[in-house]
Amino acid sequence: MSLNVLYDTAQRRQVSDRTGTTASGTDFVADPSSLTWVEPVTDTLMLLPSPLEPEWHTTSTGRYSRLNLAAFGLAASTGGWQMQATKAAGATRIYHPDGMSVPAVTLATYGKNRGIFFSAFAANVGDEDDAVLADVGWGNSGTYASGVAARVWAGGKVDIWRGGQFRKQYKIGILGGSQVANSYLNLLLLPCRRRELLVYSITAGDGFVHVFDEIPEDEPNPVITPDEKMWFYIPKGMVDGEFAPLQFATSGSVMGAKASFGTPPKATQELRQYVNGVAFGGTAGYLLHADTAFAGATGASVSLLDHTGAAFVKNGVNKDVRLGVTLTGDGAYSPFVYLAHAEYKPEFANTPEVGESVMDKLVAGTFRLDSQGAAFDMELKDLDELDTRVPKIKRVSNRPVDVMHGPFFLMRGISETPDVGGEREHVARLNVSLRSRLKLADKEMFNERVPLVGMDVCRSSAPCALRMLLHQIGLTDAEINLEDVPGAVIGRTPPAKCGKAETEIQIGDKAADWIRRLVDDYLGGFVYGFRPVLDPDVKEEFFIESPETIAAKPSKLTLYKRVQDAIDAGRPKEIAHLFVYRRFNHKVLEPEANQVRVTGWNPREGRLLQSFLDDLDSQDPTLDPADRPDNWVGGVRKYGLGTRSLNRQEDVDRACELLYNRLTPALEPVEWFSEFMSDPANGLPIWQADKITLDGEGDVIVGSFIFGVDIDEPNPEDPLHPLARWRETRYTGSLNQLVGVPGTTLGEIQRNHRRRVVSRQVTRPGSEFLLDGFSLVAVSTP
User: Fold this and answer.
1) Which residues contact 175 (CB under 8 A, 6 or more apart)?
2) Where are the alpha helices (DSSP H) in 26-100?
């Protein structure tokens, strides 16, 4: 098969950039009329609790109802109990002149994670150290022995209990804990945000959120408060209070702050699709970082509006925009929204299909493929004639150029800056380097912040962060082949304070940097890049595969040490030489680490998340030589990754395990020479991450290859494809797993591996504060 280089082929290039808008926290203009509320402790958007509506003070029916004495098994005028009317809402307050001897417990049970409204008159009963104003909670016992409870002290202190154990003490009130005696204390106690309890003082306008860290961050169905009875207890003084299972309106709508698109979206631009939870629209044209109450029926959706609140019209002129969010519930529960985002996708157009071959002007060329992608460097002659056939070939770079091997595309490349010079026999030559389409990702710079919170990293067919980045450089879904990794999710944890996203692309960041970062942080050891495909319409695809997928592949062909061995194995004599390998070389590389630490950041709790894995046999200096494993170091060799994008313990543990599997083995790279290999089943070139068999050595995973081609004499019968003298191809690979460093020779791989062994601490930009959690050897900030 012949090599061909075609200039100015059809390639998708961007004509309109993406443009988006985000709203979070206080960006939302919530007020009672919208029936929504941005609670001031974490700035989370939710439906407005009914006690915050003006109607709460004038009516006591429907969602404004309170519990009466009968709800607690008590009766008016029995034992001094009464219902009193102190405002227009009527007889809503439970009253007893002499206080309580036992807690009042509801007869009914209420669903899990149901909120409470509680009001009590706080008489002057003592100082903050020994005066308990009230206890209120969830649990059939009506005590701290089970369920969840809050104890409110006269000085504004609040104790949180769960499961009979004291958890933490907070302060509440004006300026965070002032005397609340001789006034009404009105509290909202709301289970929310996966594993938190909001305690908010309506009286003072402040509060706190307690995180129940015993509930796993990834718990799919968290129980913050139990599906049991509710209760309250006022131990001293008279009882004068209100009690209600919290209710909400069943819907509310709010708009975000007024904003403007950086570039007015055209009428033809489409909204990017995101995968949200079923309650939040499923796959829709917006990203919604939110949680349900994990009880009842709640949800939310997002719309694009103009500044007047009307639907936004995209026409290439309008740029004033604001996000609208509609929240829904069943009256007993609310959803909790942390961030909303929507963006229009970039648009692309194909460059003109010319496809001018320059093979008749090729003097020499070198094609290589390694972990950084494919590249082809070539030297061309007859520049004046060439410049006529390929206009401005000596001046214009970034041209689409295809490198083909027979009918298959080795690379759909992009030309670098041409270099005229390097005379040979007093004739000028043109040196041109071609790079893969990942070069587009290196040049694709974001001009807006783009939140990634809640997004899947890598899914085979659904929207995900990697697919979004690949779309940004012009790839279509047909050109993207991602392995399905359902466990890798970015930033699912609710923020401590809603506003700026915990994980987001920054202004000036490049798409290529984020592709590498997501793979390194969430998919350690995965192999990715472009490869040829059979479909002539697709030509090449971007793929990503895990070490497990690669290891499970069958061998595509076998190479033999001698021609006769290939013949004996059934290869025809006239082509048997194509199945022979030569100059085999094998190395064992020392492990990069035998202790791996990953540090993440829980933004909600403001604490480091750590995961450690140790290979003790590799570290043990006392092992006898015969008992030492192949990756023996005889001491501790550390590696650390610090990134704030990992904010669940599950994410940190997973990243640590992937890194451990990649860094601790003694890798076994190999090198051999052979003819350029193609799959006998379909003719596709053998590529990176393919598996072949070297007879006498075993199965090998291909990691890189390099070959050169020289042009001898023109072929009069085929002037566009002159005789080419192919140099043999040098391959590298591995007997166990790919080394994952650049290089097309064993020597280059060894040198690059050695450099990587030296720098074994990686801290992502914006995560430098995590260095306090490290005790490693060096700092690298890629």
Assistant:
1) none
2) none
- For residue 419, CA distances in Å to 369, 395, 415, 426, 729 come to 22, 9, 11, 16, 26
Helix axes 465-472, 511-522, angle to 10 degrees: 160
Q: What percent of the chain is modeled with pLDDT above 70?
A: 92
Can you tell me which residue has the tokens 């009506």? Answer: 142
Q: Show Cβ contacts of residue 630 under 8 Å, excluding neighbours closer than 6 positions.
A: 588, 665, 666
Rounded to whole angstroms, the Cα distance separating 677 from 352 reads 32
Q: Say how far apart CA 451 and CA 514 lie, in whole Å.
A: 12
To the nearest 10°, report the CA torsion of 530, 534, 537, 538. Answer: -20
User: What is the tens place of the pLDDT at every residue in 731-773?
Assistant: 999 998 888 888 999 999 989 888 877 656 666 666 665 655 5
CA distance to 94, 105, 338, per residue, from 71 (Å)? 11, 8, 36
- Residue 778, exposed/middle/buried by CB under 10 A (0-12, 13-18, 19+)? exposed
Q: How far apart are the first and last CA of the chain?
A: 41
Tokens of 504: 């987001």
Mean pLDDT of 712-739: 69
DSSP string, 222-283: --SS-SS-EEEE--SS-EEEEEEE--B-SEEEEE---EE-SSPPPTT--BPPEE--GGGTSE
Distance of CA 459 to the CA centre of its chain: 11
The whole-angstrom separation of Cα 35 and Cα 32 is 5
pLDDT digits (tens, 9 = 90+) for 109-131: 999 999 999 999 876 655 555 68
Mean pLDDT lowest among 102-106, 293-297, 518-522, 730-734: 518-522
DSSP 510: B
Average pLDDT, the chain: 90
Inform me whether the pLDDT recorded for 162 exceeds 90. yes
Torsion of CA 517, 519, 525, 529, to 10 degrees: -110
Report how far residue 83's alpha carbon sits from residue 126's, in angstroms, rounded to the nearest whole number: 26
CA–CA gap between residue 569 and residue 561 (Å, rounded): 12
